[in-house]
Amino acid sequence: MPQSATPSATAATLDAHSRAPGPAVNPGELSAGVLGTADIIFMVVAAAAPMAVVVALMPMAFGFGNGAGVSGAWLGALTAMLLFAVGYVRIIPHVRNAGAFYAYIAASIGRPWGLGAAYVAAFSYFALSASTLGALAFFSEQFLESVGGQHLHWVAWAFVAIALVGWLSYRRITLAAKVLGIALAAEITIILLLDFKIVHDVGLRGFDLADFAPRNVFAPGLGIAAIYAFNSMIGVEGTAIYQEEARNRTVTIPRATYLALSLIGLFYVFTAWCMTSSAGASRVAALARSNPGSFIADRSMVHLGQPGVLAVSILVLSSAFAAVLGLFNNAARYLYALARDGVLPAVLARTHPRHHSPHIAGLVLAAALVVVFSGAALMRLDPLVNVATALAGLGSVGLMALLGVTALAIPIFFLRRAVVSLTCTAAPVAGGLIILAATLLAFVNYQALTGVDSAIINHLPYALIAMFALGMTQALWLRSRRPDIFARIGSTRVEG
Predict the structure, then answer these.
(1) What tens digit of pLDDT does each residue of 417-450 get?
(2) Sign of the C-alpha dihedral computed for residues 86, 266, 438 and 316 taken in this order
(3) Which tens digit of pLDDT belongs to each residue from 56-70?
(4) pLDDT for residue 495 is more than 70
(5) Rounded to the nearest 5°, which phi and psi values hold at 246?
(6) Which residues touch 484 (CB under 8 Å, ≥6 apart)?
(7) How far is CA 461 from CA 92, 132, 280, in A?
(8) Average pLDDT of the chain?
């Protein structure tokens, strides 16, 4: 049997066109050949919000997970994601579509499954965008009061952020990539500065390789730590969403996928190890559990002083905004892909005549955010406790499930083409099984993700099942009533 898939002549022709510089020629298409490897890395890593992960999620993993073994848990999650990526990049030459999960599952398992996955993906990306926006609005209000003594209601901050995100998504994608690149560079710089200051202060002898030993990694609480570790890397799979806008996509997308995962994963592993070494392996869990919200600020005060604490506070805001923008762009491209395939109203498939952005889809999502936060303000909900908490876990579980299903769908795609190899079949199966196990843990321990006792919030994952069922039902209806549209589901530019 052949050991790897060979792209068809049609795919090669498409690659030649994707390498051509300049905007897309045909109306209704995204800009072709405008994003390089660095641009795509900025887009997807910024969506993962590394600063927000370190400040908000990592202390929870320390406090309620496996303590000193957290850095090992992150290393395990990175390994699983890289196994997934090995197969993920192999399918890219065969499926060129802005709805990555959607197109891959449709081409592998079937169109009804693909459409169900598409609805879950779009819903999850939007939920995470709204969740992060709620946290951004809350912390912006708090920051202005603590630093300037002024008060501006959180909903005003939310509307300002929605306007900025809507404007950036309306413009050419390269502008958003530049904004995200600046924000990402700043947040990574300050965390690495803290990390290296810890290395200087603690010394190399303070870093114990026993933190990666099985007895520490597989300690009680590993399941909880794994939830946060996988949650922190959600969004990195979005490299394929931008393949229609990438330069030389068959080279750029795989390179961006591997680099983004490796850089962000190793960043988390190193930072977790630094925090463990700073607090002490025997004390890190207790310190983080006592006050997870101030754990990183306390480490910053110890090693960087008050200026470091202020810098972290500011860059948490820029990190949150970058994440909102990256997740928003992902959701907009899912709506665009579904509309282009005839599943959603055709108006959502329109692109701007000059910027070649999916501007109608972006405007619809911006309007949806306005509705969500207007409703939250009218009902006097807390943007952090009610909005952010409710939607964060929902989007995370949805995307974790899709990662796992996609990983298992990739071998099916290649097996149907008589292709069996380590990269096309074995690696994605191994990664997918690990990711699905983590997804099950997240579903069972959902309250650990939300941190609240609300029965309504902790039953929100069932909405994901409803969205999947809606997509499958629509696909089955289209198969019997509109077979022409059914045939287009997920098949846009599928090769081979």
Answers:
(1) 888 888 899 999 999 999 998 888 888 878 776 7
(2) negative
(3) 889 888 988 899 999
(4) no
(5) -90, 150
(6) none
(7) 30, 18, 36
(8) 83
Q: What is the pLDDT of residue 363?
A: 93
Q: From 1.20.1070.10, 3.40.50.620, 1.20.1740.10, 3.20.20.210, which CATH number describes the 30-486 domain?
A: 1.20.1740.10
Q: What six digits make up the tokens of 467? A: 């969205």
Contacts of 189 (CB under 8 A, 6+ apart): none
Residue 210 has pLDDT above 50, yes or no: yes
Nearest to 111 by CA among 486, 399, 407: 486
Q: Return d(Cα 334, Cα 337) in angstroms, integer.
A: 5
- Residue (of 456, 119, 70, 398) closest to 231 by Cα position: 398
CA distance 319 to 267: 15
Residue in the structure block whose two tokens are 């995370």: 396
Residue 92 one-letter amino acid: I
pLDDT of residue 23: 38
* Contact status, residue 357 vs residue 170, Cβ threshold 8 Å: yes
Spatial distance between the Cα atoms of 38 and 259, rounded to a whole number of angstroms: 9
Rg (alpha carbons) of the chain, rounded to whole number: 22
Query: From CA 244, how far away is CA 34, in angstroms rounded?
Result: 9
pLDDT band at residue 381 under the 50/70/90 scheme: confident
Q: Which of 155, 112, 120, 151 is nearest to 136 (CA)?
A: 155
> Hunting for tokens 């068809």 — which residue is that?
8
Q: CB–CB of 331/368 below 8 Å? A: no
What is the amino acid identity at position 61? A
Alpha carbon distance 4, 217 (integer Å): 35
Structure tokens at 337: 């892909």
Cα distance between residue 18 and residue 247, in whole Å: 6
Predicted local distance difference test score (pLDDT) of residue 28: 58
CB-based contact 131:391 (threshold 8 Å): yes
CB 284 within 8 A of CB 275: yes
Domain ranges of the chain: 30-486
What mean pLDDT comes out for the span 91-104? 72
- Residues near 329 by beta carbon (within 8 Å), at least 6 away in sequence: 43, 47, 169, 173, 176, 362
Contact 240, 40 (CB under 8 A): no
Helix (H, G, I), strand (E, B) or coil at 172: coil
The DSSP annotation for 410-448 comes to HHHHHHTTT---IIIIIHHHHHHHHHHHHHHHHHHTHHH
Distance between CA atoms of 453 and 458, rounded to whole angstroms?
7
User: Using CA atoms, how far apart are residues 398 and 394, in angstroms rounded to an integer?
Assistant: 6
